[in-house]
Amino acid sequence: MRDVAIIGVGCTRFGELWDYSFRDLVVEAGLRAIVDARITGEEIDAIYLGNMSAGMFIEQEHIASVVADHAGVASDLHTPVTRVEAGCASGALALRSGIMAVASGWHDIVIAAGVEKMTDVSSGLAEEALSSSADREWEGVYGATLASLYAMMARAHMKRYGTTREQMAAVAVKNHDNASKNPLAQYKNKITIEGVLNSGKVAEPLRVLDCSSIADGAAACVLAPLEIAEKYTDIPVKVRASAQASDTIALHDRRDITTMDATVYAAERAFEIAGVTPRDLDLAEVHDSYTISEIMAIEDLGFVRKGEGGKAVEEGRTTLHGEMPINPSGGLKGCGNPLGATGVRQAIELVWQLRGEAGERQVDDARIGLTHNVGGSGGTAVVHILSL
Amino acid sequence: MRDVAIIGVGCTRFGELWDYSFRDLVVEAGLRAIVDARITGEEIDAIYLGNMSAGMFIEQEHIASVVADHAGVASDLHTPVTRVEAGCASGALALRSGIMAVASGWHDIVIAAGVEKMTDVSSGLAEEALSSSADREWEGVYGATLASLYAMMARAHMKRYGTTREQMAAVAVKNHDNASKNPLAQYKNKITIEGVLNSGKVAEPLRVLDCSSIADGAAACVLAPLEIAEKYTDIPVKVRASAQASDTIALHDRRDITTMDATVYAAERAFEIAGVTPRDLDLAEVHDSYTISEIMAIEDLGFVRKGEGGKAVEEGRTTLHGEMPINPSGGLKGCGNPLGATGVRQAIELVWQLRGEAGERQVDDARIGLTHNVGGSGGTAVVHILSL
Question: How close, in Å, is residue B226 to chain A by CA atoms?
Answer without folding.
Answer: 16
